[in-house]
Model the fold of this input.
Amino acid sequence: MRHASLQEVNYAKLYILSDNSVLASSRNILGEHGFSILITSDRGEILFDTGQTGRVVVNNLEVMRRGDIRTVVLSHGHYDHTGGLLSVVRRTANRCEIYAHPMVFYRRFKRVRGEIKEIGMPFPRSELEDAGAVFRVSNEAQVINQWLITTGTIERSNDFEKPESEFYIEVDGRLEADPFLDDQAVAFDVKGKGTVVVTGCAHSGVVNTLEYVKKVLGRDEIYAVIGGFHLNDASKEKLEKTVDALRAANPKVIVPCHCTGRDAVYLLKERFGGAVMYGDAGLALEL
Done:
């Protein structure tokens, strides 16, 4: 069943605040390995992820003339999506509400050239709360201000989108393969167009994400998918299956960002043409 409390917005404008690349025509916009996007509508605004550093996300907020952030959603607990959070909270005059999965605070690691490196959120929860953060944690979908919904833990419904083996999570003092149960996206409906889905890294798989959003909302029409698709190291088979599934979903707007990978972006551009827009820091997208 579709969430009865989720209301359509009449329009939306999205500002990419952090990404691996910068819009060529932009001035004074900074880039970094990370992702952050400000989602605004006639019903309010929400920051989805905070990039790797406060320096970049705060600079770009100011360059793009955006005010204090009062609501944040975290896609998952990696440093390149949470590293700017403390700066965002401190920039806000009053309390800042943070929506997240409870596992976002777990320590995370990645094997890089044979070495295990820590890649989790760089701040303890207590430091963020002392600065004014108020956490709303749940592994279930959460409706925010009646117009935007988090997915919570995303169901895995296909056999080709599996978590990468180089990522680990610390559970009870032991390192285990990270199942990315905290990986979540956000979605909202634009009147007369359809559902917009924004992903952080899509560690659950961008196709799994879209299918789960359709299940949660009880509608099939995906108007736009924006964010990191985590296809940078994907096999040719996975790329082809992802493209086939996206073609079946038939979004009118596709904006690959951050961890999608150049080969995947070029393939998407080749297959979907004008529906694909490169996601760069400094991009302001009207829907």
